[in-house]
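Sequence and fold
=================
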Amino acid sequence: MSSSIDAYVEAALALHFPMLSDAAAARVKAQFARIAELAGPVLAYPVDANDEPAPVYRP
C-alpha cells in the first residue's frame, strides 16, 4: 500500500474508530489497497472533455 493511502487510513481509523482492533484495522487497510488497485486503471484512462459532452444546465 502506498504511504499516502496508509497514512489516510490510519488517520481515518484513529478519528472515527479509535478502539478498533489491530486485526480489524489491517482488514480495512487491505480493503483500501484493493480499492486503489481496482481504481488505478480507471483513473489512468485518458478522458477528454469532448469524449462525452453533456448539456449545460441554464435556468
In short: The chain has one domain: 3-44. The chain has two helices and no strands.
